[in-house]
């Protein structure tokens, strides 16, 4: 009898060829899901091409290590041993951007980001054993609303990509050539999304990205000189920008972000456990959150950002019907390898902003769609759940419409409420406590 026949599917070791192909598929989707985070932060703070290249490498490298820790028992008694692909948390985009912009220089900013990330990682690890008792405070109405808030808050970045150098000039209009190119990419993606199925259906963003880059290249909008100048191999070392520094305001903002990340990864983990037919016990909950704490600490160590689970890869897991965690471990190794190739990150950073703008609606719209899908579980009869959603989305839009709305307030208020993601998510949590306290107390929320 084959040894694999005695194992659950999640622990099945696949043939090498199948393992590599599935790992590659997950890797491609993970890279596409990860790169917007460093690109957004780089654009917001004006990182140099070299700094952007290093940041992308650090994030991809961190995604690979995080995925390995989730799939394999590398750190004893902390791995949930599940096929969960990890990557960058979108919730940190406004916080990291603000921290870097407010610092006296980029180096100091990254030192503060690293310090804050490592502190909240330790807190996440310590909170892991108690997290299951706190889950009642984050029912589907809160989780779904948080995802919608996340998508709505990130959508303006699409407009900034489209506007290029005039992103923050509200009196300027978009260039006709840019608009037509972005529209062509947008329509192309819509068409192939309708007709491409299976593997190709999961790679529509990548295919559209290649199409858009080739289109931009034909119009003379792509500069590949940074790719030619970038080395083939680059070693990611801890504390690239120096030893970590600690800032109370920044740490508090990053703490809120990791709490949101813990909520998100808990929901994703439950979905994965359901797909792979593995019990989501208290011990598994603990291991998922402990692994998140460890991977967040490592990300801070290597100058990355807080990781989270990629919902897109859950879809691939369900679609392929292959549940082996070793395929995800293979993807983790591939991501780590890519993290050592500066030419790859230079190629990513060479993609023109209008190309990303043409796909931005899809990239961030999927997040909104995921939130709406979760809200299907919510009861809207005889309660104020609709009001919770509406008010939270409204609050999250304030900083996007009026970036200086909180400019005259203390730094901690600006960091929290100046981020639409944090402000909207906190609103959802507080309003749910106010309106649904009885249900929370009884464990029925």
TrEMBL record:
PROSITE patterns, alphabetized: XANTH_URACIL_PERMASE
Gene Ontology MF term list: xanthine transmembrane transporter activity
Ligase among keywords: no
Keyword Acyltransferase: no
Keywords assigned: Cell membrane, Membrane, Transmembrane, Transmembrane helix, Transport
Localisation per UniProt entry: Cell membrane
Residues spanning the membrane: 20-42, 54-75, 112-132, 137-159, 179-196, 203-222, 252-276, 326-349, 355-375, 387-406, 412-435
Lineage top rank: taxon: Bacteria
Family note: Belongs to the nucleobase:cation symporter-2 (NCS2) (TC 2.A.40) family.
PANTHER family, alphabetized: PURINE PERMEASE C1399.01C-RELATED, URIC ACID TRANSPORTER UACT
UniProt-recorded name of the protein: Xanthine permease
Organism phylogeny: Bacteria, Bacillati, Bacillota, Bacilli, Lactobacillales
The encoding gene: pbuX_2
